[in-house]
Amino acid sequence: MRSLRWLVLLVAAIGGCSDKTIINNNYYSFTTGAISGRVVPGDPGTLVMTSDSVRVKHVDPSGYFVLDSLPTGVYGIVVIPVNYSRREITNLTVASGQILSIGDVTVSNFPYPFYQSAPEDGRDSVHLSTSIRLYADERVILDDLESSATITPELNGEWNEQTWASKTYGSSQYTFYPTERLRLATNYTVRIPASVRLAGGGTLGSDLVLHFTTEPLILKLRSFPSGINGGVPLMEFGPSLSFNVVIDEDSLTKAVSFVPAIPGLWLQTAKGSSGGQYSFMATGTDPLLPETNYLMIISGTVPLDGPLTLPQTDTIRFTTEPSGVIQSYPQNGARMHCTVCSISLVFNAPMDTASVRAAFSLRLFATDSLIPGIITWYSSPRQMQFSPQGALTPGTVYTYKLARSAQTTSGHAMSQDYTASFLVEEMQ
What is the C-alpha to C-alpha distance for residues 133 and 144, in angstroms, rounded to an integer? Predict the structure, then answer.
């Protein structure tokens, strides 16, 4: 059985003392080893080592320490800071010629054996689906924890214990798993009384108190459709928003306004444990104004979740696409295997049919000769078809063009000409 030696690290406020040792394998005798690490948060002080003899070194102001000239063996370290609770780290095996780095040794104001929590004490904007974790250097009696720990406001759930072997993260983790989501924008307090017993004997000795605040109502823009030149489409405008809770649809419709105005309402399209998703359905028949800067304003005063509002009014800016063609056939560069080929165009807004008829042309590319034909419209003035009079010539390139003079029914002209060319291939 290997004997366990204890090294006691005392951190005391000694101004101006620093002895950060640069470690390398040539520094030590190959018959001894060393342990290095860092106390976090850092605090200058003294390092007291006890084994066969007692030696004192200064802890680096940043918290670094080195325990050197250690005979081969299994060690334990007790860190006793000035402003924080102690840490006890066990089962550190040092071999001859070895420098054992144990990394960061986290200290806190929690009573021993607890030394770290998640969320951290004082943390803001904690996620609503979080669990509460406490890390300890030594086991505590789980029954005591379950019966006496309190969470305010009251939160239903249960405590769970997990133990493992580790150098710097103690030996135990205690997790409270809520059976419900936490409340929005709420200050929570976790209190574990001093009477909770340690598995190895004794009690905490003082209360552990942990505070954290949950996140406020959060809005995210999930999607914004993109059209010509990256602008927002003039028709079927339907942005999507998500919140970290499920909110009232009617309240969202009241809270959101557009400048220039866009009539419509918000509908819930998805909901789950992470919140709700909502999409806007425009109720007007007119398209948005082309090449126009819009504002979507979400009020910070209209209640969305009970009494809760957004932390502040949120404004989303977007610009609409120009009037133009959003789909065409044949596409530019296409190879056609037909001589009786029609050309179709789809627009992003209802078009003035007379102006389109005057602006459209099909020409033979080599000679720029005009090809006559007839324009017809589908169920709406957004889709047109041009049918040439007579067959097209195989092995020939044709170009069709819609001049920018074509206008929408509301009088907006296209921002630029639309041109495409295609080849009618030789028949096999």
Answer: 16
Which amino acid, 168? Answer: T
| Sign of the torsion angle spanned by Cα atoms 260, 261, 264, 266 | positive
Looking only at Cα atoms, what is the longest distance across the chain?
108
**DSSP secondary structure letters along 287-332:** PPPTT-EEEEEE-SSS-SBTTB--SS-EEEEEEBPPS-EEEEESPT
**Residues of the chain scoring pLDDT < 70:** 1-30, 43-59, 165-170, 428
Domain span(s) for CATH 2.60.40.3710 in the chain: 114-214
Q: Are 36 and 46 in contact (CB under 8 A)?
A: no
What three-state secondary structure class fits 253? Answer: helix
Q: Which CATH code, of 3.40.930.10, 1.20.120.430, 2.60.40.1220, 3.40.190.10, is assigned to 325-424?
A: 2.60.40.1220
Q: How far apart are the C-alpha atoms of 41 and 75, rounded to whole Å?
A: 23
